[in-house]
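I hope you will forgive my troubling you with a question about protein structure. I am sending you one protein, given as its amino acid sequence and as whole-number tokens for its backbone shapes. Thank you for your consideration; the sequence and its tokens are set out here:
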Amino acid sequence: MLKKITIKDLKPGMFVHQILEQKGQLSVKSQGRVTSQAIADALKKKGVLTLVVDTDKAFSVSSGEPAPKKEAPVSKKIEEKVPKVSLENELTRATKLHVQGKRIQKQLLNSVKKAQPFDSSIPKEFSAKLVSSVDRNPDALLCLTKIREKDDYLLEHSLNVAILLANFGRHLGMSESEVQDLSYSGFLHDLGKIQIPDEILHKPGRLTDDEMDIMKGHVKHGVDYLNETDLDKALIRTISEHHERLDGLGYPMGTKGENISREGRMLAIADMYDALTADRVYKSGMSSQKAFSILLSDAPSRLDLPLVQQFIKCMGIYPVGSLVLLSNERLAMVLEQTDSPLAPKVKVFYSVRNAHFLEPKDIDLASEKTVKVSKAAIASDYKIDVNAFFERSVSIG
């Protein structure tokens, strides 16, 4: 039976099913046996406040053997697993979700701009749908984060960050409600930018110090607006921290180190990654590999290094939706990760040598030994419209 307890009630012989509440940075597994008091004390020291134990998995500390199991109650299962589906099956729903997300984001931004309230149940329900899509097949929505309209950056950025965070949270083994809240925070994190003048928000060159001060104000604009809603305060805190940095040189509060929540640190990483890889009207986004390098260069002084490493691990060396140049001089889109990090499943669609599109063909590079990835690629380097290819040959929504 699953039972919620506080950290002071955690004893040797208990089995931890899930961490519910914590403060500071946690670097322990979500589940596991408590074989000694030292482990319980360590969890407390690391900031664990409340947790769920599984009484059916209790064991004798002396022997290490499981205690006799009690008859499981009917209500034992608290979270039903979402059945996995193929990429093709999920793309239809994911494409519709992506369109719906941009529409909701536009409505939210208009509400903020006019200082009007919004129905928080709409974006919250949408965030739950995103998480369900990620559970069914994360690759569908991850593909869509790479399909961008340059004029829709503000709409797409928050949507993409919500998708990235849903994937990130699931990778870390967070609970359903935690992942939904994390994704929700990503969806709302940049609402304050609608209050920033367009000439600053969309300025192609480097901002002046005065312009940067105005730009930094977007966090406060968003938080002030959200504080007038019924949004959970912990979620607002996460949103308020997406530009804070571990060295205390972030903004708006200059919060430092352990005082930044884990969710805030995760949001900072996903926000920065999507901003670096996004296409803008005035510039093309960089490759995921270059963005990963920048994230790592900012850790551990500014970004949380273990979380950056986990983010890169969950995205993969060649993230789903990104382009790669193959050894046969053909471009391909990454569709799925495999057990071999350097050999994903891809869809080949363009001949660089002959500069023309090909009949799309799926290849599993883990089993196809005659072809391998030469390097990551960016569509703008080859002057091709990857959005048109995706809509024609990948998306079926």
